[in-house]
Design a protein that fits this description.
Number of strands: 0
CATH architecture: Orthogonal Bundle
Largest sheet: none
CATH class: Mainly Alpha
Order of helices and strands: HHHHHHHHHHHHHHHHH
Oligomer: single chain
Radius of gyration: 21 Å
Structural class: mainly alpha
Distance between the termini: 34 Å
Shape: globular
CATH topology: Proton glutamate symport protein
Helix content: over 70%
Strand content: under 5%
């Protein structure tokens, strides 16, 4: 959670330094952001307790999530038959979503066609700048921020472990684009590092869901890009509040390809950005997702193994044991390989 929040704050700062804008079309381009933090918090609370039907009709994602949590808690006391019905409805909704997502390439093609016709090929320069900002933030976290945190935690240079995790976990995740699909790879790497199975058998699947540095970066950068592109003035302290929301949203992102993009509208709603504009940003995310999502998954998945190893090495150091075997990979398993 700490590293995810750090990555999100870094993304916010980078977005304010390099204010990337993209060309958008349609209504919702003249939105006005809330004027103060107090107004933001007030709007946030009002959105949470909005009528659930109104929240669904109006696309109030914060309200939808809040009521979903409440109904989920309430349904714990429901009968088994009721739970089966709710489970069947959930499966039906999931099937419909999969059908819609399978048609996403046609929708993206339409968005790109419309935007290119109205604004020319120069829009791809804007998309490239946005992609460069996201990739730069991810590389900075993977190669600078996370290694510094790991080195401080274990009191030694953590780069040997960092590079090995990137090579053996991140490279595979780059091509699978799924943290969940990369769990067996991470489990195998933890075994090769000689970690305690009772520890990594829990932390690796949990990390595949919660440790989402790349997703937090994507959500924060895309939401601020939408705000800057529509002329919405976002105070810096409000953007820091966005980084906290992006952290929590990233922890809820699914470990599948493009999972973080679907949380962009929720982050945009905090900044007063129109829902239609937010969905255009999702479409742009799918366009640049070949690179963005691959790097995002590589950062997330390699971090799962690295911080699992760092936690165990920190405990070993407290007990007076040597951590060189894990840090430099000098185990019987690796020698055989």
């Amino acid at each position: 959670m700490g590293t995810t929040l750090t990555a999100s704050i870094l993304a916010v700062c980078a977005s304010f330094i390099f204010k990337v804008k993209v060309t958008l079309v349609g209504p919702g381009l003249d939105q006005v952001a809330p004027g103060s933090i107090g107004e933001v918090i007030t709007n946030l609370l009002n959105n949470l307790v909005q009528n659930p039907i109104s929240a669904i009709i109006g696309g109030n994602y914060l309200g939808i999530l809040f009521w979903a949590v409440l109904f989920g808690i309430a349904l714990r006391a429901a009968s088994d038959r009721t739970k089966e019905i709710v489970g069947d409805l959930s499966a039906a909704v999931s099937a419909c979503i999969r059908w819609v997502i399978s048609l996403a390439p046609f929708g993206i093609l339409g968005l790109v066609f419309t935007t290119v016709c109205e604004n020319g090929l120069d829009i791809f320069v804007d998309y490239g700048a946005l992609l460069a900002l996201i990739v730069g933030c991810m590389l900075l976290v993977a190669l600078v921020i996370n290694p510094i945190i790991a080195s401080v935690m274990i009191g030694k240079n953590a780069y040997p472990l960092v590079f090995r995790c990137l090579r053996e976990s991140g490279l595979t995740a780059f091509f699978t684009r799924s943290s969940a699909a990369n769990i067996p790879v991470n489990m195998r790497l933890c075994e090769k590092l000689g970690l305690d199975k009772n520890m990594y058998s829990v932390s690796i699947p949990l990390g595949a869901t919660i440790n989402m540095d790349g997703a937090a970066i994507t959500i924060a950068v895309m939401a601020l890009c939408a705000a800057f592109s529509t002329g919405v003035h976002v105070p810096f302290f409000q953007a820091i509040l966005l980084s906290i929301l992006a952290t929590l949203a990233a922890c809820g992102a699914s470990g599948v390809a493009g999972g973080s993009l679907l949380l962009i509208p929720m982050a945009c709603s905090l900044l007063g950005v129109d829902q239609g504009v937010a969905m255009q940003m999702v479409g742009i995310g799918f366009i640049i997702g070949v690179v963005q999502d691959s790097l995002e998954t590589a950062l997330n998945s390699s971090g799962d193994v690295m911080f699992a190893a760092v936690a165990e090495m920190r405990q070993m150091k407290k007990e007076g044991k040597s951590i060189d075997g894990i840090l430099y990979g000098k185990t019987e398993e690796t020698e055989k390989d």
